[in-house]
Amino acid sequence: MQRSPDIARFLKTTSLTLALLFGFGAAGPAGAAGDEDTADEPQYSRGVKQCMACHKEGREKPAHEVFFTTMGITGDPSSPFAEGNHDCEACHGPSAHHIRKQKDGTRLPPTVTFSDKEPVETQNAACMSCHTDAGRFHWPGSTHDLEAVACVDCHDVHAANDPVLALETQPEVCYQCHQEQRAQFLRQSRHPVQGSTASLSHVGLLGCTDCHQPHGGPGPANLIRNTINEQCYDCHAEKRGPFLWEHAPVQEDCSNCHVPHGSNYENLLVARQPYLCQQCHLGNFHVSAVYSGSGLPPEGRDQRMLGKQCMNCHVQVHGSNHPGGITQTR
Ligand code: HEC
Ligand code: HEC
Ligand code: HEC
Ligand code: HEC
Ligand code: HEC
Ligand code: HEC
Ligand code: HEC
Ligand code: HEC
Ligand code: HEC
Ligand code: HEC
Asked: Does an H or E element contain 96, and which?
């Protein structure tokens, strides 16, 4: 805040005294939660009722919808509106100075307004005063924390239904900053996340948070699990095995062959076949090297080559449990 603390304090106390003397701002019967604290803490207003006198439904800046959120459940002792938690000012900071206009007719804003101009640390500190539970364990030092993303860049705490918490509306919130991922989810092969392509079936089955922990996680890329493979096994458990004959790159990392969001090659693959396999396999013993050009007409007509590709024979590319499946052909 730019103004000097002394003046601020003077203004705060004056407005509070006036409020007490003239019953200013008392919209309803006294006794809103937190009332009794104000005697010791003049920097706070007299609580939610005082704020709602000016911010009720229909006013210039209505704030009533916050009561429809889980934070409005006053029976929860840790709710902002529970006894002793300073109601609106649990988030907006001590704001008695905001209640009354100054002499020049202007109104000082509350201590925390969550505007873009406010430092992100100030904004997030307001939320973290209550939300240091397990859900935010990985937040300090997470990518979003380091990139100075504010809690309220994703969360709309005043909305009855915070869009980021619902599967159908969540991706749009993320796409505000993650345009590239929006494009990926529009490709022909993609995980069925809402917003991919409305005309395709299965759209809206998954949200970003089926794989990512936006508050930071133990794995790479904010994944919920420790490794990419563990993340994939959550839903594609049959790829975990165990297999009698493993295929090394599958055990190592699914992203050797797949992209997670969307691809223009079928099955979310990183490359077309047979080039996919030929990135690692080139041998002259059989068709694995056919695309060198030898064996093609007019010189030759290798029947294993024409119209065929590796997966026609090596069908068990993720691993085989057949005693004779060492080369993944069954
Ligand atoms: C006497 C009427 C009145 C009371 C009481 C009041 N406000 Fe306001 N408030 C306003 C008006 C009017 C605005 C619109 C901005 C302006 O004119 O400065 C506003 C704006 C705000 C803003 C937006 C500030 C910004 O710059 O974006 C917040 C947040 C806010 N009030 C919170 C509160 C809280 C919390 C309380 C209770 C501690 C409260 N208000 C009590 C009249 C009031
Ligand atoms: C859980 C924290 C939290 C609580 C509790 C809370 N607010 Fe807010 N308030 C915010 C945040 C965050 C914003 C900024 C919203 C945004 O950027 O979309 C905001 C914005 C506002 C605004 C500006 C809205 C606008 O249209 O510009 C007003 C006014 C306001 N709050 C008043 C209140 C009042 C009155 C209460 C108590 C009834 C209250 N708030 C309780 C977090 C809170
Ligand atoms: C005074 C304590 C307090 C403060 C400050 C606070 N919250 Fe909450 N919040 C709660 C309580 C209590 C709940 C309901 C129980 C729960 O889900 O943990 C809650 C729930 C939530 C939820 C889950 C809503 C749902 O429907 O599941 C979100 C998201 C949230 N808060 C975000 C925020 C953000 C963002 C801020 C800062 C702008 C903030 N909170 C500030 C106490 C607080
Ligand atoms: C990048 C976007 C993003 C940011 C930034 C973010 N959240 Fe969340 N938050 C989410 C999403 C998405 C969910 C729903 C998680 C789910 O469904 O698994 C969520 C859920 C929550 C919940 C309810 C579930 C739980 O984990 O307890 C709370 C409370 C919450 N966030 C608080 C916060 C606070 C506090 C901050 C800032 C320190 C914050 N969030 C920052 C996206 C975000
Ligand atoms: C306000 C902007 C903003 C929003 C909204 C946002 N992010 Fe981010 N996110 C960033 C920035 C900045 C980075 C770091 C640069 C990058 O990787 O693009 C990042 C990085 C990430 C990363 C990579 C993390 C890493 O360590 O590599 C993931 C995953 C991610 N965000 C997921 C999400 C999800 C899921 C949502 C929605 C719930 C979301 N983000 C919403 C700004 C945002
Ligand atoms: C099926 C699981 C899954 C879903 C759903 C998913 N992601 Fe990812 N995402 C991943 C994996 C795995 C990576 C890591 C890729 C790597 O490092 O090779 C990743 C990486 C990222 C990154 C880091 C940059 C990059 O592309 O490597 C961002 C940002 C990101 N995801 C955002 C999102 C957003 C936004 C959504 C929702 C619209 C989303 N993701 C949905 C699995 C998923
Ligand atoms: C939260 C569950 C979930 C997770 C985690 C998950 N998937 Fe999927 N995956 C699905 C669903 C659902 C489909 C679509 C099935 C359908 O359309 O019939 C799918 C489809 C696929 C497809 C076929 C795509 C196509 O075009 O037909 C591939 C390949 C795939 N996933 C790979 C992966 C990889 C690799 C990972 C790890 C990065 C992963 N999946 C993580 C749920 C998940
Ligand atoms: C060596 C490359 C390679 C690796 C590594 C790989 N895949 Fe695949 N995957 C493929 C190919 C090729 C297909 C297409 C299969 C087909 O056409 O029958 C495929 C198809 C899929 C499909 C869709 C068809 C099906 O079988 O259900 C899923 C799901 C899938 N892979 C998941 C995974 C997971 C999870 C991992 C990591 C454990 C993984 N893949 C690692 C090459 C690979
Ligand atoms: C990222 C590199 C990589 C890719 C891509 C890859 N492989 Fe492999 N593959 C390996 C490695 C490493 C082995 C193990 C070699 C060993 O044990 O000597 C292996 C083993 C095999 C084997 C068994 C060989 C043996 O001697 O046991 C077959 C068959 C095979 N791969 C087929 C394929 C097919 C078909 C594709 C394309 C769908 C493919 N591979 C893609 C790396 C890869
Ligand atoms: C017409 C069927 C067929 C096609 C097409 C095919 N393979 Fe094979 N491949 C086989 C058979 C059968 C074996 C086992 C040969 C043996 O045991 O001597 C084999 C063996 C292999 C081996 C293991 C060699 C070793 O040292 O044991 C690899 C690696 C391999 N193929 C890769 C590929 C790749 C890469 C492609 C695509 C470019 C491909 N194959 C296309 C039938 C095929």
From this structure: helix 96-99
